[in-house]
Structures are given as C-alpha cells and as structure tokens.
Amino acid sequence: MDVRVVLLILATTITATGSQQISASRNPLPVGSNVTLFSQDHVKTGTWISDNTLIVFIAPGNVNIPDSWKDRATFNSTTSSLTITSVTLEDSGEYTLQAFSPNNFIHQLTLSVQVPISNVSLTASATDLVEFNDTAVLTCSVLNGTSLSYVWMKGSSEMAAGARVQLSNGGATLTIVGVTRYDEGSYRCNVSNGVSDAISPPVHLNIYYGPSNTTMTVTPMRSAYITGSNITLSCSAESKPPAGVQWMFNGVNLNHFGQELQLEMVAENKSGNYQCILHNTVTSRFTSESGMIRILTPIAAVVVNPTGGPPILHEQYMLHCEVTGYVENIQWSRNGQPMTADNTTVIDMTNRTLLLKPVQLSDNGDYRCEASSPVSNMTSHPYTVEVNYGPMTPVIAAPSMALTGQMVTLNCSSDSHPPSHISWYFNGSLQATTSELVIGPLTFNMSGQYTCMAHNNITGKNSSADTMLTLLAPVTMASIKIVGAQPIMNHTFHSEL
Ligand SMILES: *[C@@H]1O[C@H](CO)[C@@H](O)[C@H](O)[C@H]1NC(C)=O
Ligand SMILES: *[C@@H]1O[C@H](CO)[C@@H](O)[C@H](O)[C@H]1NC(C)=O
Ligand SMILES: *[C@@H]1O[C@H](CO)[C@@H](O)[C@H](O)[C@H]1NC(C)=O
Ligand SMILES: *[C@@H]1O[C@H](CO)[C@@H](O)[C@H](O)[C@H]1NC(C)=O
Ligand SMILES: *[C@@H]1O[C@H](CO)[C@@H](O)[C@H](O)[C@H]1NC(C)=O
Ligand SMILES: *[C@@H]1O[C@H](CO)[C@@H](O)[C@H](O)[C@H]1NC(C)=O
Ligand SMILES: *[C@@H]1O[C@H](CO)[C@@H](O)[C@H](O)[C@H]1NC(C)=O
Ligand SMILES: *[C@@H]1O[C@H](CO)[C@@H](O)[C@H](O)[C@H]1NC(C)=O
Ligand SMILES: *[C@@H]1O[C@H](CO)[C@@H](O)[C@H](O)[C@H]1NC(C)=O
Ligand SMILES: *[C@@H]1O[C@H](CO)[C@@H](O)[C@H](O)[C@H]1NC(C)=O
Ligand SMILES: *[C@@H]1O[C@H](CO)[C@@H](O)[C@H](O)[C@H]1NC(C)=O
Ligand SMILES: *[C@@H]1O[C@H](CO)[C@@H](O)[C@H](O)[C@H]1NC(C)=O
C-alpha cells in the first residue's frame, strides 16, 4: 500500500494534539544550516511529513526515507528525531510527526528558514532640507535577507510613527512630512529577522531654518541717550545657516551689514527708528526687528527771567524759565521749597511760566527753576522777587501851631517799596522833594494847609496827606510859663501868663 494513502487516512482520523511536543534545535534558522526536530514522545510506527511530503516512514526495524530527502534527512530511531542538513528557504513550513504506536498522536511544528541579512544601506531622497517646506524620505534596503522587520533610529533613540513620521513599504521607508529643525540628526535603520540583524550606516539630515525669533538688543539700554553717547545695536535670530543682517535708519538703507551696528558719538539727528533685516539665503526667508532710539541734547543753561513788568502787590506777575537744551519737566522752587500750583499760583509747563495771580507780600523770595530731561538736569541761579507796593497813606509828623519867627520841621513818611519820592506842597506850589520840610523864620502867610505827596515810581501810585499849621504872634511883654509838655493837637494846652 502506498504510504501516502495510509497517511491521508490517518490524518483525517487523528487530530493534532499540539505542537509543543516537537522542538527544533534552532528555529528560525539560517539557510544552509542543519536542524534537528526532537519529539518528546517515542515513535515506533509513524511518519515525519513536511507540507504533505513524506520525509521519513517509521516502522519497527524499518526506517524509509524517500529519494528526494535521502541526501539531507536522517532519522534517529533512539530519539525519534529528524535532522535536515543544509536547509533552504523552501524548507520553511509545517512539520508533522504522526505516530501510530506506541501511541496515536500528531505533533506539529512550523519551521522558518531565513536568509541572514547582509549589506544594509540607507538612502535619502535629499539630505539638505528646508524647514516646513520639505519632506524627508529615507529608504532602508538590504542585499540579502528575508522576513525583515525594521526599527528606525534617530541618534540613539528609537523613532515612533506619528502624524508627521510615516512608515511604508513594510517599514523600509520612513517619510517625515514638513521637516522641522528638530528633525535634524543622524538616522539609521536597524533591520532584523529571526536569524540576524544589522544596522545601516547613518545618514545625516541637515535642516535649514529661520530666521525666526529675531531680537534686537541695544547696549546700553536707555529710554534716551545724551548726545555724544556710543550705542551698540545688535540683532540676532535663530537661523541655519546664520542670517545676513542689513540695517535701515528711518526707512533708509544704511549699507551696513553685520549683526552689530555701532553708533559713535551720536548727535541729535541720529534719533529715530532703527531696523535690522535678516535674510537666510538658503530658506529665502526674511525677518526684521526695529527699535526707536532717542538722542537728546543735555540742558546747557537754565535762567529765570521776569516777563512783563515788576511784581506789584495785588497785580499779576510772571516768571519764565528759559532752558537751553532738551527739557521735559521743570520744577519751580521758592526759598528752596518746591512750589505747587494753588489758587494764586499758576504753573504752565508748556510755556514754562510761573504766574502769581495776584501777587502777595508772601511771594517775596528767591525763585529757582530746575529743568530736567531723561539725560540731564540743571537748576537756575536764584532770581530774587521783591514785591512792590505802596505808597500807603503818608504819616506826617509836624506841629499844628507855631510862633511867627520860629523855624519848624515837617516830616512825612509813607510805607512803600521801593521807598516813595516825597514832595511837599503849600497852596499848590512845590516846597520840597524831601521827606523833611523845614520852614521859617515863620510869617503869618505861612500858616495853612501843607500837603505831603508820596510817589512810588514802580507802582506808579501816589498817596497824599495834609497838615494844618497855625501861626501865633509871640507875646513880647509877658513871659510864658509852660506847664507840662509841648502842645499836642486836640489836647488842651495850658499856659500861665
Ligand atoms: C551539517 O551536517 C553535515 C553532515 O553532518 C556537516 O558536514 C556540516 O558541517 C553541518 N553543517 C553545519 C553548519 O553544522
Ligand atoms: C541518536 O541519538 C542518540 C542520543 O543523542 C545518540 O546517542 C545516537 O548516537 C544517535 N544515533 C545516531 C545513529 O546518530
Ligand atoms: C556587501 O558587504 C560586504 C562586506 O560588508 C562587501 O564586501 C560587499 O562588497 C557588499 N556587497 C555589495 C553588493 O555592496
Ligand atoms: C545572498 O543569498 C543567496 C542565497 O539566498 C546567496 O547565494 C548569496 O551568496 C547571498 N549573498 C550574500 C552577499 O550574502
Ligand atoms: C523663541 O525664543 C523663546 C525664548 O528664548 C523660546 O521660548 C521659543 O521657543 C523660541 N521660539 C522658537 C520658534 O524657537
Ligand atoms: C565712544 O567711542 C569713541 C570712539 O571709539 C571713543 O573715543 C569715546 O571715548 C567713546 N565714548 C564713550 C562715552 O564711551
Ligand atoms: C516654501 O513654501 C512656500 C509656500 O509653499 C513657498 O512660498 C516658498 O517659496 C517655499 N520656500 C522654499 C525655500 O522652497
Ligand atoms: C485760596 O485758597 C485758600 C484755601 O484753599 C483760601 O483760604 C484763600 O482765600 C484763597 N485765596 C484766593 C485769593 O482765592
Ligand atoms: C502759552 O503762551 C501762549 C502765548 O505766549 C498762550 O497763547 C498760551 O495760551 C499759553 N499756554 C498756556 C497753556 O497757557
Ligand atoms: C540730576 O542729575 C544728577 C547728575 O547729573 C543726578 O545725580 C540727579 O539724580 C539728577 N536729579 C534728578 C531729579 O534727575
Ligand atoms: C525811580 O526812582 C529812582 C530814584 O530816583 C531811580 O533811580 C529809578 O531809575 C526810578 N525808576 C523808574 C522806573 O523811573
Ligand atoms: C483833631 O480834632 C479835629 C476835630 O475834632 C479832627 O478833625 C482831627 O482829625 C483831629 N486831629 C487829630 C490828629 O486827632
């Protein structure tokens, strides 16, 4: 009977009882190697079959191996093991040990013969890539090898597929869509099968990017600079290759190239907008950054001057703070005390004036103006304000009566600043332009009303007062005995003849 027919019958009646009972000396195994398949259970009668071809027919005292296997298969009756030498890829498949005695069973094992991996290479569609625009395609290939699986490495870490990182071609192709600067690095593919593994030489991806994150720094950092300062402007960005830098001032190209722009001994006309333009020639991308630089002349002089007339009590008076150089703020002070606006003091920052409205006697003092800017400050010399006033109603010191022939002195004074000019009038005619009027020897026609006129040539005001002088004839034949003091006006005067 044909062995194959027997086997087919048996195969349909006996069910497989598992595959653990067969073990291989090696599995998977490389082509060309030898393999021994071991059975746990001893077989007296049975077969070794591979994919429905008989390899060994086992019967007590008789082991039959077909010609097609004779060269390569050997059966050890002691162990019931099958050894196959010089395996080929075609030897991969299911191996079945079917026993009829001493027990009925079917044991199975799937054998995998693989070609060892050799000559792994990695190629990239391009290795110089532009961030965001380009896609990297890396292909891993082997000269020889079967049942390949791929692990992709970036540097020393394993890569995982994701939204941007895609695997195709059974894992042999890695695609990075829209590369970023962080994708730069060395890539390798690690190829393995059951019998070997190999790693490709690295391929380095250069990612060109930027300029981005452009910054401008100014040293020293100030809100404003005094004329004559040295200022350094510097622009930088994240860029590969490094970006070229060009400079503009108020929209005009300065024809200056380089990260730094030095401004030396700056004049006021260097105030304005500075801009740096960065260009990456590989990515063809531009960025720019700009900053305002203020250059101010320092305050060279501060002088307090009056505007208009002199300070006159109860009138208006204005002081002006004259500043040479750039000024942002002024502060007035009187006698060292900072002044604030109130209902009689108006401070005008725009016109830099101080208005006293109205002038009071308490406004006397030394006025200073302190001018300041972000780059300098200066205080004026003091300007002394003396409030002009008067004349007040004159006060006259004069006797009301006198004897003919005598000399009398009339004195007039008036509170005034500056001191008033005093004039004396009698019957409308000027007698003197001094505060003291001495008249005499007296005659009767000298009696009457004397007028003292005070004139302040600053305030332009006049004030006057009168005094009456009554003349008496001396008593020639009698002696006058004066009792008490001198005669006082409106007091009773006693004399005894
Ligand atoms: C396989 O077996 C044959 C015969 O026993 C032997 O000559 C050969 O060296 C073996 N090959 C290997 C790789 O062990
Ligand atoms: C069969 O295997 C046994 C145990 O490994 C060994 O001792 C014996 O020599 C083998 N027989 C043949 C014919 O190779
Ligand atoms: C494969 O690699 C070996 C050694 O690594 C080398 O000698 C041989 O030339 C390579 N073959 C090819 C086709 O690259
Ligand atoms: C590739 O494998 C074949 C057999 O599959 C073999 O003949 C050839 O020599 C192998 N080449 C290399 C380079 O290993
Ligand atoms: C820009 O710089 C900042 C701070 O240095 C950093 O946090 C940010 O990630 C950078 N942005 C880019 C796109 O590099
Ligand atoms: C500014 O630079 C000039 C020229 O380098 C130098 O002579 C000058 O002393 C510098 N001025 C300051 C304030 O550093
Ligand atoms: C990158 O892509 C943008 C938009 O698709 C395109 O305008 C630009 O020219 C590209 N840049 C480079 C360097 O290819
Ligand atoms: C100014 O204000 C003060 C109090 O606020 C007040 O006593 C004074 O009379 C005011 N002077 C004038 C001139 O309005
Ligand atoms: C500044 O002075 C001008 C004239 O000199 C005047 O017209 C203007 O009103 C003044 N400004 C203020 C805020 O008083
Ligand atoms: C004025 O300038 C001096 C130095 O020039 C500085 O020490 C002082 O703090 C400044 N004062 C003000 C109020 O700015
Ligand atoms: C006011 O009078 C004084 C003293 O006579 C004189 O020196 C001064 O020039 C006069 N001032 C004016 C404004 O007339
Ligand atoms: C003296 O008395 C007269 C009348 O009573 C009066 O008008 C005058 O002002 C008085 N003079 C003085 C200095 O008191």
From TrEMBL:
InterPro entries: Ig-like_dom (IPR007110), Ig-like_dom_sf (IPR036179), Ig-like_fold (IPR013783), Ig_sub (IPR003599), Ig_sub2 (IPR003598), IgSF_CEA-related (IPR052598)
Keyword Disulfide bond attached: yes
Matching Pfam families: Ig_3
Sorted UniProt keywords: Disulfide bond, Glycoprotein, Immunoglobulin domain, Signal
Domain of life: Eukaryota
Stretches assigned to the Ig-like domain: 116-200, 211-287, 298-386, 391-470
Keyword Transferase: no
SMART domains: IG, IGc2
Sequence intervals crossing the membrane: none
Signal peptide interval: 1-19
Record's protein name: Ig-like domain-containing protein
Native organism: Pagothenia borchgrevinki (Bald rockcod)
Organism taxonomic ancestry: Eukaryota, Metazoa, Chordata, Craniata, Vertebrata
